[in-house]
């Protein structure tokens, strides 16, 4: 089965620990509930798209451990095509420990394992791109992601890159500055965390660093980043700006809200041909709905998103 959106990147299991509040340094907090839930930013984006009715496929490597087996089963049940998921013999799957407070704030500890970042460049092939409308990556693993991104540029397939971690952290995950510069140059649309913009531009103000990063790499479809409770913004077309606010909801867990946002924007902009401002609003609604749910993945369909949008 051909897919509309192919993603290469993080696949993980999350151990979610619910507590009253996050402990201060040298402090403690009581855990009221523990849950093992599937996650991984790239997988979360693809599941969000699948919830919206999009055919999606994941390229990643997991271990043959308990975490990997549970992840793979859930991925299939979530409607994401798993044929690009490789299983490393005696491998350890990326897993995280996420503490979530009652107000939705969180802290994340990641165990990288030995599988995700060792996906070989030779494992990915041009055949994976048959019928693909959009290629999405967070550069985990970097060399394999670059290979598919280069092939996409040759085929005219839009490349979407999410700089979800700052360059200094990416370097710890075997993504050198040279590799990062290449994917930033190949990308048609860039999503970035605030810390990523700061490191790339050298300034704390995202309204300054955003345009600087856009002008350096000129992604054809724009540079998108979020501003917390101030909403989200997209720089595009040599200085033009699209911006939107946030939806007020009772937050349960903010984990994965950014992934739901990315999935929502890809859906609205690339697959529904909405303009950037409406795509930002749709993405913001996806993120808001995710915040009302425990776990890292959006559990809402397109009608739910439009209902929130229409409600304002």
Automatic annotation (TrEMBL):
Gene3D superfamilies: 3.40.1190.20
Domain Carbohydrate kinase PfkB residue range list: 8-297
Example of a GO MF term: kinase activity
SUPFAM superfamilies (alphabetical): Ribokinase-like
InterPro entries the UniProt entry points to: Carboh/pur_kinase_PfkB_CS, Ketohexokinase-related, PfkB_dom, Ribo/fructo_kinase, Ribokinase-like
Alphabetic keyword roster: Kinase, Transferase
Signal peptide positions (record): none
Domain of life: Bacteria
Annotated family: Belongs to the carbohydrate kinase PfkB family.
Protein name per the record: Carbohydrate kinase PfkB domain-containing protein
Organism of this sequence: Formimonas warabiya
Lineage of producing organism: Bacteria, Bacillati, Bacillota, Clostridia, Eubacteriales
